[in-house]
Amino acid sequence: MAVEKMSIAKALNESLRLALDTDPKVLIMGEDVGKLGGVFRITDGLQKDFGEDRVIDTPLAESGIVGTAIGLALRGYRPIVEIQFDGFVFPAYDQIVTQLAKMHARSLGKVKLPVVVRIPYGGGIGAVEHHSESPEALFAHVAGLKVVSPSNASDAYWMMQQAVQSDDPVIFFEPKRRYWDKGEVDTESIPGPLHKAVTARDGGDLTLVAYGPMVKVCLEAAAAAQEEGKSIEVLDLRSMAPIDFDAIQRSAEKTGRVVVVHEAPVFYGSGAEIAARITERCFYHLEAPVLRVGGYSVPYPPARLEDEYLPGLDRVLDAVDRSLAF
């Protein structure tokens, strides 16, 4: 067993390196991914080792980047596209939702587009406008796209491998403020299927459902609640499309209370779909309504105010208390 402690950024770098080394049809494309190694250094050293034909610095043209990746996928390649920041993805949104997501159905299953679109997302790094968005629900709503987000180094390593190997397009959201969080990665043991939720902490009184950057916050909330005698389960969703509703249902039936936490705005967020579906499935098991914690329905604020905007420990614990009070 080869276990190594590494950051999420390092895990992604190692996973991309392995993908390039394993399959000559794998390419990496994006703004500054080559010589610079990406603004977060996720692709650091890859162009040096694999060449400019495999790790390609592109013009500042997100629509062109994704459109080119679609063409390459049609010719048998497996492109990995980096969108430099979450808020930069929207020029490519048309290519993603009208072409990338639809081609498999449009061709009656004859054409596959194995494209991975990497998007660093979320706040917490003190960035300027358009650098701290959480647009995952916009993509999860589109049939034909898989949408995932790791919360730890092991998942970052293995989920990237699984995304690259998928014959369907995958939108891979990377929680940028967690890039430097470290954890153990077993590079020889696949942890499980790409879209399977994982219990990050066992509990019996209430379930916190989260993904990506909010899993760490929920684990901290569960630890704080334990000091008051409350047993909180934390479910790491890992995938927003498809969603592992069976895992959420099992936990909801066990605890009777569910709070969904995500960084994106609550209004029309993925928590709404989870709340509705779990209410339908578990109505007679629930001791309280499914509650949601997330960002406010406003444009992402200037960096000085982002701590007020982002869901933190107090807002999660407040929702826990409200649920337990029913």
UniProtKB/TrEMBL annotation:
The keyword Oxidoreductase applies. This is Branched-chain alpha-keto acid dehydrogenase, E1 component, beta subunit (EC). Keywords: Oxidoreductase, Thiamine pyrophosphate. Transmembrane segments: none annotated. It is an enzyme of class 1 (oxidoreductase). InterPro entries: THDP-binding, Transketo_C/PFOR_II, Transketolase-like_Pyr-bd, Transketolase_C. Its EC number is 1.2.4.4. Residues 6-181 form the Transketolase-like pyrimidine-binding domain. It holds the Pfam family Transketolase_C. One of its GO terms (molecular function) is branched-chain 2-oxo acid dehydrogenase activity. It comes from the Bacteria. PANTHER family: PYRUVATE DEHYDROGENASE E1 COMPONENT BETA SUBUNIT, PYRUVATE DEHYDROGENASE E1 COMPONENT SUBUNIT BETA. Its cofactor is thiamine diphosphate.
